Structure formats: structure tokens, C-alpha cells
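INPUT
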Amino acid sequence: MLSESDRMGHQSAMTREVADPIQDLFGVPAMELFASKELVVQHGALERFPAFMRTGLMDNVERLCRGYAGALQVSNGTATDGVQIDVAGAHASALLRLGLTVYFTQLEGALPESTAWLRGLEGALGLPQCAGLSAFANAAGSGLSVHHDRFDQLFFQIKGEKKFHYAPNRFLENPDVQFSPCSAAPPDWAQAYRHGFPLTGDELLAEGLTTAVLKPGSAFFMPAGTWHTTAGQNEEALSIVVAVRAPSRLAIVLNLLRHYAGQSPEWRARSYGGWAAPGPAMTQERQKLGALLADLAERVRALPAGDAYGAWLSEGFTTGTQGHYPMAARFDRYIRLPNSSVHYQPAGASDLTTCIVRSGRTDRPQAETVLAISPEVRPVVDWVLQTRAAFSVNDACRAFEDCDREDLETLFAWLSHAALIRPLPVPEWDGR
Ligand SMILES: [Fe+2]
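OUTPUT
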């Protein structure tokens, strides 16, 4: 019924075809490695790493410093005391000469060949787009104090020898926060560490850390929460880190609830009086919220858990965390987006029509998506254009009885990809 530019079709096909990139490096599938929740070190030849990790910009520290234009952080300290801060306006090479550890925070933009590998890793883990690439260059003598990270990560040693000291976290599972006893506690720290925490880095060191000596070609998987320090390196070193920033179950449910309850004016209302001094205004507002919570609890029982995943992808495409619209996802309802438009042109010799969708931000030339549509599709696009409220696939089926439902769903996926429409990825909230 319709096709899109070759470029996009080719990209999505490539993404699907990438094999599990972990299997060859660690000898187990990515899913198994990440499920182990144990630090797993593998040593081998540097050449087994993907070329983008060890050639071009990653050939040596100087080339990386010269070619990288993204954000930087620096850190330094002993095993039990130190800081890591953003820096701007300073060149990475100068920061290394100052004897610091330099953190190249957004490496994937500088290494475009990494994209397919990262998307392959996400695919192998059954995740949406969430993996990021960064690099650490250690000046001799520098390193990070003991801490743990928020996300599971893969670490690849590229240059130099690095002593990596680590220990499992006996305080909690799945922290979902980064934490170091020598830094301020982050906002989500209290609920995670409610059963106990180390007061100082010395407490952690006293329990003993295991040391892995990493050489070019060494790699490890480190689950979130693993205590580690790289303070006091003997020599200059360069490492790549792949952080897999998978959303927590709680994050995807909060997003689901935002899309679901956000349909209700009662939930969108402001809680005036809620913080008032004790009295009728406060009581009334808090009782109202309690009643809404009880109502929501009943409704949530019937919410399909699967909708949380579609809602996450739809939200990510809207906000830009997902680079591509999830073409395979099917939603029951969509809404036409204002400030989007359609322009038709004859498509050469064929009977197809070129449908140019302009959409997105209006403070710059709008994005253009070119679709080739067959004659029977144009009335459906025109029908979508005249809508002024959310419509369902059922509405479209009723309006175009001759169209297959599957074809309409495919069309709506393309129109969502072009941002002419946007899914409402959750069940309809009944009532106002
Ligand atoms: Fe770390």
C-alpha cells in the first residue's frame, strides 16, 4: 500500500539483523551475562574487540583528545576520597597533563560505527534504545574513588594497564542510583539504602576488594551496584565503557500511569489546599486525592502490562530518546498533531502519489518525511487530517470499510513515524 524512503527501510532492516555482539566476546549470550549479576572478566587479544573501539579516534589517547568535541568530566582522588566534576572550555589533553582522569561522556556521536553494535546489544537484551558509549583516559597516578554506578555496564580496556579494584554490594540489590560514601547521596538513595549503607569508603575497603589487572584486550561485565575504584593508576590508560541505561520496572509503570491517568482532568488538577494548615481545606483536598488513588488502584488492575512497553517507546520517540519510531508496535488510538501538514505530488510514472509530511518544531525548518502512497490511501490521510480529537483504528475501519485493518495499522505506523499523528498508547480513560 505504501513504502518509504529506502534509507529508513534499510536502517531498520540492518538493526534487526545484528547478531548478539556479546556472544563472541564473553562466550555467553548477553542476556545470560547480564542476568548473572556478577562481575565477569575476560582477557584476550585486543583485536577481538569491534574495530570502532580500537581504531580511528580510539587508536590512541592523543587522537581521541584531538577528535572528540563532546562533553567532558574529570575526576581524581584516593580510593576513599575524591570528586568528579563537569568541565567546559578546557581541552582534554590539557586536563590529562594536569594529571586527571578524563571522562569522555558522549562517545557514540564521535564513533558512528558504534551505532549498529549498540543497537545489536540492546536487541540481544530485549531493550529499547538505551545503551551509551563513553571513555576514560587516566593520567598516570589518577583514578576514581570507591563508588558504584546506577546501570549495568561493559568495560573494555584499550590502552595501558589498569588496576581495577571491586567488591559486590552486600547492602542492596538493583540500586538504581549511583552512590559513593564520599559524595552526596542522590535523590533516590534513601528508599534504596533503607536497610543500611557504608558510612565511609574505608568501611568498604576494610571488607576487601578484588583486583583485576586489565590489559589491552581485557573486558568485563559489571552489574550496577558493584563497588569499584580505579584510584592511583600506575600508568596512562584508555578504556571504553558501555552503560546500558535500561529503564526500571518502576520507571516504565510511572510513564504508563502518566499516559493513562493524564487523560483525566481530575488527575491533571492542581492540589490546592493539599499543603494548607490542618483544617477543612487540607482535609477536603487530601480526601479527594485518597478517593482518586483508590479509584486508580481499581483501574490499574485492568491495565495491560504490555501497554507499558509500547508507551515507553512512543514516549521515547516523542522526546528523542528513541531514534526510530517502533514500526512494529500497534496502538488502538492516535491523535493528529497540530502544526503538521501534508503535501502531495505525483510520483513519476507509477500510480503512486508522493506524500510529503512536514512536522515537528516550528522554530526551524520542519522535518520532512516522504511517503509513497497508493490512490486508495489518500482519502484515509485526508480523513486523518480533518480530525480534531483522538481517533481509534476502529473509527478508521468504520469510515473505510474497504480497507484492511492491517493496512490501516501499517499506515498509522508510518504516519506516526512521520509525526503527522501520535499514538495514545494506553486504554482510554472512561469518563471525562
Ligand atoms: Fe564507575
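end of record. Residues 10-246 form a domain with the Jelly Rolls fold (CATH 2.60.120.650).
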